[in-house]
């Protein structure tokens, strides 16, 4: 059995995953690839990036990527995870709704399930905190305003 690692960047305004990458390794490259995908998918965005204190987010290379993209990093003190709370909530929802209680027999099955779930989460899963709209619907409403 091999592990599969998922890196996601959420837009905290509409709870929409703006980038995600799956990898067999939990390393700097996984986070860098996710960050690069988020920047590519959202040109001109200059958000505050909230993260935990994981080694990937404290590296000089990641910090330089933030500077180059014109972004600011926000990172809580040790044992104060307020910056990363929304991301932890997303992980809990994903695990509860698509992972726990199910068996995936192949890597391909798991990758397909994660990809399908993220699509569902963005386009079909209404959220109370978004006026019972999906993240995509809420995003579109904001763009139209």
Automatic annotation (TrEMBL):
Chain ranges of the Integrase catalytic domain: 1-143
InterPro entries linked: Integrase_cat-core, RNaseH-like_sf, RNaseH_sf, Transposase_IS3/IS150/IS904
UniProt-listed GO biological process terms: DNA integration
A GO molecular-function descriptor: nucleic acid binding
Protein's name according to its UniProt entry: DDE-type integrase/transposase/recombinase
């Amino acid at each position: 059995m091999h592990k599969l690692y998922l890196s996601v960047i959420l837009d905290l305004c509409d709870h929409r995953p703006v980038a995600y990458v799956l990898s067999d390794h939990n390393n700097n490259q996984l986070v860098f690839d996710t960050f690069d995908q988020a920047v590519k998918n959202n040109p001109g965005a200059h958000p505050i990036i909230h993260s935990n204190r994981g080694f990937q987010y404290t590296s000089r290379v990641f910090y330089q990527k933030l500077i180059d993209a014109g972004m600011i990093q926000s990172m809580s003190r040790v044992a104060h995870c307020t910056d990363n709370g929304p991301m932890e909530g997303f992980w809990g929802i994903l695990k509860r709704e698509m992972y726990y209680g199910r068996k995936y027999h192949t890597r391909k099955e798991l990758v397909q399930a994660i990809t399908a779930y993220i699509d569902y989460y963005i386009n079909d899963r209404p959220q109370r905190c978004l006026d019972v709209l999906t993240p995509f619907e809420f995003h579109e409403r904001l763009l139209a305003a």
